[in-house]
Amino acid sequence: MPDDDPIRKPSPAAGGWGALRSVSRELLRSGKPVEGAKTLLTLNQSDGFDCPGCAWGDPEHGSSFEFCENGVKAVAWEATSARAGPEFFAAHTLSQLREWSDHDLEKQGRLTHPLRYDPASDRYEPIAWEDAFTQIAEALRALESPDQAEFYTSGRASNEAAFLYQLFVRLYGTNNFPDCSHMCHEASGVALTEAIGTGKGTVRLEDFERCDLIYCVGQNPGTNHPRMLKSLRDCVARGAQVCVFNTLKEKGLDRFSDPQNKLEMMRGGSEPTSTHYFRPRLGGDMAVFRGMSKCVLEAEDRAQAQGLPPVLDHAFIEAHTAGFSDWCAMVRATPWAQIEAQSGLSRAQIEAAATLYLRADRVITTWAMGITQHLHSVQTIREIASFMFLKGNIGREGAGLCPVRGHSNVQGDRTVGINEKAPAALLDALEAELGVPMPRTPGHNVAEAIGAMLAGEARAFIALGGNFARAVPDTPLIAQGFAKLDLTVSIATKLNTSHLLPGKVSFVLPCLGRTEIDRNTSGKRQLITVEDSMSMVHGSAGINLPASEHLRSEVRIIAGIAQAVLGNAVVDWTALSEDNDRIRDMIARVLPNFGDFNADVRRPRGFWLRNPAACREWHTPSQRANFALCDLREATEWQQIQGLENTFVLQTIRSHDQYNTTVYGMDDRYRGVFGARNVVFIHPDDIVGSDFAAGDLVDLIGCFDDGIHRECRGFHLVPYDIPLGCLAGYFPELNALVPHQIVGEGSFTPVSKSVIVRLRAHQG
Ligand code: SF4
Questions:
Q1: What atom of ligand 1 comes closest to residue 228's alpha carbon?
Q2: The model scores a pTM over 0.90
Q3: Which of 718, 703, 707, 709 is nearest to 757 (CA)?
Q4: Taking burial as the number of CB atoms within 10 A of a residue's CB, which of 325, 553, 555, 593 is the most buried?
Q5: Is 70 touching ligand 1 by the criterion CB < 6 Å?
Q6: Centre of ligand 1 from the C-alpha of residue 170, in Å
Q7: Which atom of ligand 1 is nearest to the CA of 227?
Q8: In 3D, which of 534, 641, 651 has the Cα closest to residue 246?
Q9: Residue 293 and residue 332: Cα distance in Å, rounded?
Q10: CA distance linking residue 641 with residue 282, whole number of Å
Q11: Sign of dihedral through CA atoms 689, 655, 699, 728?
Q12: pLDDT score, position 63
């Protein structure tokens, strides 16, 4: 390990003084500590702006400080005084900038001017907005087919921007909508649609105050949804059970010190956020829930045999579900040996976790990427839903299914039409609204867009936010895909790696951030809206002056491109983008579920977008909630590596100083890593078993046999509390090891949580 050993004692608990130190550091680093602090007072407040971080909900009656440490990082990172203006781009070629780290690129600050790439000088140069729109339109119209263009969406895009984007893209003639959901919760959407008829969670924030038990599965809220820690802690404090299934021992799922609790802070105290903590192997969660279902059915058998009241909610099962008896037969036939081998937990441990379910009346199960980024994620989520049906834990108070989304509006974007396989009802409604046909051929998701780029079939890539080239698998290959493009356009707030992979013609268009005021030409302050993981739609309006007078809102930029490409014959883009209220009126006409959108969203905390499954209405082909007949896998990746030397199953994760591909800093204080990202977490016995020592520098070699050599060099081995045979390391650095062709069955999501790799002593 280098002299300044990055491995140090982790924080004793999540939150606490460490969070306050981090918050003050971020505000100071933004260069505007006073304005930054003022900005935070309107963060996640009814008349303020929505956090550009995760999609955790806002409490009905929240505090004046309704934010977490990572929310502050997201806001301070956006509201920085640093600027990446024309002089910066004049001083640096793209070839030079490609050597910079993700962190150093974004640290340059906010983009200030629309930019066009000049291949001759290998630099970005300022360009006038109208010229940019005209040249983008020429390039798009020059394509042989609209299907040669990929239109990517990051989950930060507002409902209004996303709706206008899908309107433009469909009128342009394609359904190619690769979006960030394809890399995160797509499996949740697919599985829940199959199981309960809607691709969203059924739980509301208040349900966390009324449940008896929470299963928190494959999720690290301490870093990715920090305000959830308060809900977990409050649950434990009032005697409810919180049972965690996570391969890694995560600090936030152990103890939380509430920075807003003065007494606790004074005494340096903290409270537990869980009551039970189990550590399945990577890819073992489906077997865990299969095992728990087996326990519940065995308990039902015992109750029947002893003439005791039933354990199962037979009324719910009979009235609301389909496939129960076949499912029971499959569960009963699943051998415990297979369950233990795949889960990595003993029968006794699974029985203990199931006993919590038997004792509880109202149960919530939450999950995130630890569940959704595997080959069998859809089947695993179906297994969770089936387990929850046994006692009717859905569609009633204090109970339900809760995929916790990582991006503030990833759910909203899908709701308003960012969907490569759009439901016919949406396309029919758009045709009725616009009087012109919509493209009906399903378009590309992320995996398909990557395939089209690598094959040279895609000729244009337009990104509404995000950092696609760093977020997706097979990083070196993707760079080659970008090089084949005729056109790349990025709508962004800050410079990132994807912008340094220009097509023959390339533009970077700087947009307003969430914290900034957006006024239309008549001076009216514009409101945008987002939808969180609990289906709450709420408004957001920035309070800070824009970082540059040249910035435009995402809505106006999309309207500018659309008008240049399509003209105003079908849609008057200028008029529509002049006032977001008009866009919301159109959304409400096309998606009636939005009701009186403009009025409802101006209510404090907005409104709940009705979720039929939360009301026990099942929009499935069977008109019922469906038990899932999914066999356990023959062998998980962990089972496949048994007996192979120095071979492991790797999961890519975020550090605590990171949000998606945005790296705010080099520390991961909850895991005891400081000032470094080239680390791999590994069980101490596996270090010894591989003839390495803690801190040794190793290379990771991808084991997927497709003729492509994948390796990441120079990572330090960090002893960590993780199951044998499993590794963890940060993305996007380790995305180069993830094969882009291996995607979740039904979800097409990269299998970033179960990548087979081999360790080799570092070759300098
Ligand atoms: S929990 Fe998520 S939404 Fe809330 S402040 Fe933190 S990052 Fe933002």
A1: 1
A2: yes
A3: 703
A4: 555
A5: yes
A6: 33
A7: 1
A8: 651
A9: 9
A10: 12
A11: positive
A12: 73
- The DSSP symbol for 511 reads B
350 touches 591 (CB < 8 A):
no
pLDDT for 124? 98
Dihedral angle sign, alpha carbons of residues 449, 167, 135, 107 = negative
Q: Cβ(178)–Cβ(150) under 8 Å?
A: yes
Say if CB 283 and CB 29 are below 8 A apart: no
Query: What is the full DSSP assignment across 326-352?
Result: HHHHHHHHS-HHHHHHHH-S-HHHHHH
Share of residues in the chain with pLDDT > 90 (%): 95
Listed in order, strand segments (DSSP E) in 565-691 are 607-608, 625-626, 647-653, 658-659, 662-663, 679-682
pLDDT value of position 764: 77
Q: How many whole angstroms separate alpha carbon 309 and alpha carbon 47?
A: 51
Say how many Å lie between the CA of residue 69 and the centre of ligand 1.
8
Domains of the chain by range and CATH? 14-78 (no CATH), 84-174+409-602 (3.40.50.740), 186-403 (3.40.228.10), 637-761 (2.40.40.20)
CA of 245 to the centre of ligand 1 (A): 22
Q: How many CB atoms lie within 10 A of CB 310?
A: 12
Atom 3 of ligand 1, nearest CA residue: 54
Cβ neighbours of 172 (radius 10 Å): 20
Distances (CA, A) of 582 to 232, 413, 523, 555: 40, 18, 16, 12
- The pair of structure tokens assigned to 38 is 């003022």
Looking at residue 1, its pLDDT comes to 46
Q: Residue 68: CB within 6 Å of ligand 1?
A: yes
The rounded average pLDDT for each run of 10 residues, N- to C-terminus, in the chain (764 residues) is 65 92 92 89 91 90 82 95 97 98 96 98 98 98 98 98 98 98 97 98 97 98 97 98 97 95 93 98 98 98 97 98 98 98 98 98 98 98 98 98 96 98 97 98 98 98 98 96 97 98 98 97 96 97 97 98 97 97 98 96 95 98 97 96 96 96 96 95 96 96 96 96 97 98 98 98 91
Task: Tell me which residue of 570, 576, 567, 512 sits closest to 541, measured CA to CA.
Answer: 512
Residue 599, C-beta contacts closer than 8 angstroms, at least 6 positions apart: none
User: Which residue among 225, 229, 230, 531 has the greatest number of ligand 1 atoms within 8 angstroms of its CB, and so is best to mutate?
Assistant: 225
Among residues 541, 160, 557, 194, the alpha carbon closest in space to that of 385 is found at 194
Of 99, 180, 240, the residue nearest 463 (C-alpha)? 180
56 CB less than 6 Å from ligand 1?
yes
Closest alpha carbon to 422 in 145, 619, 149, 174: 174
Whole-number Å distance, alpha carbon 733 to ligand 1 midpoint, is 24
Please report the atom of ligand 1 found closest to the CA of residue 52.
Answer: 8
Pocket test for ligand 1, best of 67, 231, 654 (most atoms within 8 A of CB): 67
